[in-house]
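Researcher: Re-running this chain for the archive, since the previous output was lost when a drive failed. Same request as before.
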Amino acid sequence: MFNKNIEIIKRFHNSHLKAKSRILFSQTGPVMLALVLFSVILPGGSHARSASGEQTQQSGESILRRVDQNLSSKNRVFESSMIIHGRRSTRTITSRSWSEGEKKSFSEYLSPAAEAGTKMLKLEGQLWIYTPSADRTIQISGHMLRQSVMGSDLSYEDMMDDRKLTDTYDSKVVSKDTLDGRDVLVVELTARVTDVAYHRQKMWIDAERFVPLRQEMYAKSGQLLKRMEMKDVERIQGRWFPKTMIYKDMLKEGKGTEFRMTKIQFDQQIPAHIFTKASLR
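Model: Regenerated structure tokens:
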């Protein structure tokens, strides 16, 4: 079955290589990753060394808890555009998504025509994808998780680790800085377990709004692997929220992948059947 699933993905890949500007298929629903990153509760950490006012002596834990309080919600329903800036071309994919907490999410691609109808379900640490071209639903696991998201700068692996950062990282505030004209607190996270994709991370958090404005992910060697920037922060339903996220694989050519929220609603009534495998068909 595993080999058959691999063959299905290969055939789907090949169908996207008919034109030179097409990119290999590998994942769906990347906006969910950014939302998961924004929804974490981050206990554990050490006291700040360099901050002022109310931030003086706050721990990485307390600051990141405030981020969670600002950005978390019972659920989200949103529409978005994913703009993939490749080495030679740029393409845009639109989708509609539903998410509940950190462990449940469902996405359906709306355009372009070649991607329309592709669906993805993440449920309790497992990931399924339905591809209309193959008319098959398969589970993504093992080394397939390392593939990129439709040629974007994300991977399945980025999306699937839904553990709270405080379950896997120690955090501390290392400095304060400015970014895009905003005062920020720089929080450094170091892995205390071995089964994580990134040994170290850094987050630049708006000191007033408590919204992450930049996040960097590093290998154990210290090499910068990926960077995410959050922009167009707006007040939505009583919370500050970034409507644009730019994700860049630093080992990959191109200008990164941009996610734009065109519509978002928090704490909605989502039918239970959305988060079932039956919704993939």
